[in-house]
Structures are given as structure tokens and as C-alpha cells.
Specification:
There is one protein chain. It contains 6 helices and 6 strands. By secondary structure, it is an alpha/beta fold. The protein has a 6-stranded parallel β-sheet with strand order 3-2-4-5-1-6, sandwiched between helices. Bound molecules: adenosine-5'-triphosphate and magnesium ion.
Amino acid sequence: MEKKNTEEGMIQVYFGNGKGKTTAALGLIMRAVGHGWPVLVVQFFKKRFTGELVSVQYLPGVDIFQFGSGEFIMGGKVEEADRKEWLLGWEMVKKHLLGGKYRLIILDELAYAFTLGLLGWDECARILSERAAGTEVVITGRTVPEELVSAADLVSEVRMIKHPAQKGVCAREGIEY
Ligand code: ATP
Ligand code: MG
């Protein structure tokens, strides 16, 4: 079998209805930083305190940003504040995908932008294909467009078997945020 160049940046997708997509993406930072990789994490549709906002400060070369109105998007209805935050975040992402400053770029919950109609596949595909050489990209979200699954090099589905939410347990500090 032909051995592929491991320096080549790939596209990874973690999706599905179970817990673990964001934690898997964040876990990858541990590995990347150990090799001296600069890492960018952009969390979309989120603006609230999470442990990772603090813990990445202990890791050299990791930058994290959240873009969200701070309110949940109810029934898929995008408010002006959501749209404004989305545009700010997407502008930053485009700049860094093309710029090559980061070796690993985690786009947490980017997939929701397709569902909400904020991002079209064609635009996303163009930016991904034009990204700086060697940039590994991780995209998470519950549901992802077929086109993204086709374009990605690695796709993992996280399937819910059980979740404490089913027995009424609220999001837990240190575990869910
Ligand atoms: P995590 O951030 O814990 O890795 P995730 O990224 O896989 O979770 P998301 O789809 O982003 O999960 O959902 C965000 C929150 O919803 C997380 O706190 C997660 O624990 C919770 N969650 C995930 N799956 C379920 C589920 N099937 N039922 C209820 N809550 C869930
Ligand atoms: Mg998540």
C-alpha cells in the first residue's frame, strides 16, 4: 500500500448524538501541544464559561475563542446577535485556515452552521481546500452534511447509548463544561 505523507493536514469530523465530540477534539490538543503544534480552537454558538477556557492557558501555543450570543438558539431561529457572532467567528476561521499560523484548528459545533443556513457547503469546501498546507482541521456537531462526510479524511460517529440527562441530571461542572 502506498504510504501517505503524514505531514499532510487532514479533515476530521466527530458527529452524532452521544457525548464526547467536543471532549475528543479538546483531547487532541494534549497530543498536538506535546509535539509543539500551535492550536486554534473556535467554539461556535457558545458564549459561556467552560473549564477549557482556563485550562488551555496552561498549554503553550493554544488559543481559544467562543462566538455566540450567549442565548440558546430556539427552534432553529437565528437572531441578529447570533448572526453577528457567527460572522465574526467565521471571518477569524477563514483568516487562520488560509494563514497557516496554526497546525491544528478545531471548529467546535461548526456543523450547526449548515443546519441553521448560515454556511453553505460550497463556501466551506472552498475555504477548506484553499487552507494552508499541513493544517489539520477538526469539525464537530450533532449532524453534518453528507458533503462534509464525503470530503473528510476521518469521520467518527459518537452514538448515544445512555446519558445522565435521560434521568434528569443537569449538565455537570468539570464533565460537561
Ligand atoms: P462534550 O462537550 O461533553 O464532549 P458533545 O460535544 O459530544 O459533548 P454536544 O452535542 O456538543 O455534545 O452537546 C453539548 C452538551 O450536551 C454536552 O454537555 C453533552 O454532555 C450533552 N449531551 C451530549 N449528548 C447528549 C444526549 N444524548 N442527551 C443529552 N445531553 C447530551
Ligand atoms: Mg460539543
